[in-house]
Amino acid sequence: MNIKFNPSLQDAFIWASNKNGVYTTKSGYTWLLSHTVTNVQPSATWSWIWKLKLPKKLKFLFWLACHNYVPTLFLLNNRNMASSALCSRCGLEDETFLHCVRDCNFSKSIWHHVGFHDENFFLDMEVSHWLKEGSLGHQSFIFAATVWWAWHHRNLMCLNNETWTISHLSYNIHSMVDSFNLCFKNNSQIDQVERFIRWNDDNYSCDILNVDGSCMGTPMRAGFGGII
């Protein structure tokens, strides 16, 4: 069979799912529907991620992890983008996502410091199941915050050659948890503290300075103000 090409015509992209070869949103949507997997088991769906009361950056990290898209050395090596899959911090195992944020000695020490000592916590090797159990458990906020800062600290060590102390990381984790409590818990779930505010001049004939202060979680994050 002889095939002849017309040299006067330029090469062009052709969308095979439309008769005229031109891509449209409707034809793309129809194509996606034709490739949709049916009878998906509830455990294989990711809707639970988007329902979490967490910032979108954490949800996106969880979504990447469940799809094995987090750029660990294991993934980059499989795509010929890294010379080795071995963890560059401990050098003991391949840097998968679970090794990176949980099992590496640098990350495990963080988990121990914030209260995760049960050995069963470190046995689950299914990423999606481990993330789901932790995110929906009674320690969901501190779990999510520790995952985030364990991954962040890994990037600081590997990309910036920077190492933080456990105390520094613990402070950031608990500060993030405080923010989660303020943003995502109902008002009824937060302890209400009575504040008595009163202006008092007692008829003095001088200037009076009334001051007030507040502290959020730790004295390191405090503020004050005054009215003359």
How would you characterize the overall build of this protein?
It is a single chain. The chain has a two-stranded antiparallel ribbon with strand order 1-2. It has 9 helices and 2 strands; from the N terminus they run H-H-H-H-H-H-H-H-H-E-E. The radius of gyration is 27 Å and the shape is extended. It has 2 domains: 30 residues, no CATH class; 144 residues, no CATH class. Helix 6 runs antiparallel to helix 8. About 3% of the residues have low confidence. It is mainly α.
Brief account:
The protein is mainly alpha-helical.
Task: Draw up the topology in text.
Blueprint: H1 25-34, H2 47-50, H3 56-66, H4 73-78, H5 97-103, H6 105-113, H7 127-136, H8 140-159, H9 166-184, E1 210-216, E2 218-227
Helix pairs in contact: 5-6, 6-8, 7-8, 8-9
